Input
Amino acid sequence: MTINRYKTLAANTIILGLGQFGSKFLVIIMMRFYQAALGTTGYGEINNIVDTAVLLMSFATLSIGESIIRFGLDKLYDNKQVFSIGMRVTFIGVIGCMLYVPLMGLLTVIFPDNSVFALLKDYSWLTVLYVATGSTKSSVALFVRSSGHVKLYAIDGILTTVMNILFNFLLLFGFKLGNVGYILSVVFADVCSILFLFFAARLKTQITFRIDKELLKTMLRFSIPMIPTSIMWWIVNVSSSFMISEMMSFADSGIYKAAYKLPSMISIFSGIFSQAWNMSAITENNSSTIAKFYTNVFNIFQSVVYVIAGGLMLVIRPAIMILTEPEFYSAYVISPFLILSVSFTCFSTFMGSVYVASKKSVRSMTTSAIGAGLNIGLNLIFIQLWGLQGATLAGFISFLAIFVIRAADTRKIVRMDIKLPKMLVNTALLLGMSVVIFLVEDKPLYYGLLAVLFLIIVIINFKAGVDAVKMVLKKEVKE
Output
């Protein structure tokens, strides 16, 4: 007999969802505003700049954020030490990131015809500023969440988004600063977030200048292998847009990124859930019934992901036309494989929580490396053959491979049941919906077939939803 950890997981998910879903959804709605302000080329350029900054954050901070959340949740470690070590590593790393500026100058000399490197050189100092504020905000926010201030963390999500949008209107439409205005909007919003969390969470009381060297070594041993993991995930997630920019054009990259925005609805749900789930996975890691816990939660999680994915395929065509400018309308045709890619990204991330909870960060790195190598190789072939559609197919195959490898590997740590037959049927139904989107021109037939396939997905996954409600409502759960 155990306390209802499902209720705790659900409560944390709801709190984080209230704080983040609305704000993240608002960003998707703002997509048309960004496209109007930046155009297809500018939209593609800004995504390349932001993607580069995200990669640099892992180098700058030595992925210390992973250690902050992992060790901050573990009651065996002193929170003051965890926060102070995290902030010191972040600060030193941000200063070191300034080396990026001369490095980009060197790369443009070596590769004078590379349009992506030329773009990054033009925005090098702004990129470093983006990395500095983003890295600091991330470390501070992760510590606040690991300290149990989940509501405060959620409020900060709303604040950051609101400030970002206000600065967007001021700098993009008011001062018409284009790409520079977009980057500065994010920078200023992050600064507001850092100041808010520092005072609201009274983080001054968590700072100590006497560092526990053993804990420093332990945290770095956990976080440093996460750097190549982050690189590999970055390669799988965003290398396609870089390769499209270079092999095709920035405008094509902009269309690709626009197509990715609606599938990111799945990532929004998964990201919110994963934040709550990682807290549960770490705190429950030593439980004797952990395998059953993982099995039940993953069964519910995959059902929600499949239903959202099916719903997105059903509405993707009209949604793209409502949310984007006319020059982006063709994005709906390349969305199906992106939806499948994001779905298996969610499943792979769930499996990755096993590595985090058990401190097996090297395994996380290895499995990510396989997917990254596969993605680059397939992109080089598929983009030449099928253009944007080839890039989406390469991504789907890569994420599917990562999930399969992780599902097999994590069974050595936690023997959970992934409900493989249900996964196969759901995936086949999504592939069927993809075929309809690719091939069917007649609108009544198009929407009729998609509606039938979506209804089947809902029926297959309905029981998992009912089971989830029952487990949450029970005061105690037998396992």
Notes: The beta strands are 2-3, 476-477.
